[in-house]
Specification:
Layout lengths: L13 E5 L7 H16 L6 H24 L2 E5 L2 E6 L5 E6 L3 E7 L2 H6 L1 E8 L5 E8 L1 H25 L5 H13 L5 H13 L2
Helix pairs in contact: 1-2, 5-6
Length: 201
Amino acid sequence: MPFPRKYLNEGEEIVLDLRPHWSFFAGPVAALALALALAVWARNVRYLNVVILLLALVALGWCVGRWARWVTTNFVVTTDRLIYRHGVFVRKGKEIPLERLNDVSFHRSLVHRMVGAGDLLIESAGEQGQQPFDHIAHPEVVQNLIHRTCEAAQARDADRMAGRRELSPLEQLEKLDELRQRGVISQAEFEAKKAQLLDRL
């Protein structure tokens, strides 16, 4: 299921919502296929086929358990943070604010490159340090997207800080004059505030 939007902060938007790459199923699916192949091969062997059938059931349970983990795992990048949630019966999660990300690197073996998967290593400020995330689809694309999202967040924060810059007395006087001209404040109020501002020059 997609990451629930009710867990987002006000004004926060989802940039990326990933589940583990399909290679996440490689082990259990291979085990199940092998067990079924052995079951067909040993179908006429009285005792051996029972053992192989039990192995096939174990492999099938492994597949079901892996699917349940896949469904309940979210790797999410938002405009403010990176969120990782996983767990079927016991939910666990990590959240890293974008401003605390120091480095994002990836690792892809030859097999990973063939199937389009890889691992991400995210380094953040604080006690957590480096956090590995495996079975990520196209990790170099995800790495680039995280960097671009961080840059956009930094630019947004810079604009916000610039908007909060305290106006100089002259700029405040101009604003007051606009309010006087629009009739929001009276001439007397304007003169009183003007005197206060001129005293600060």
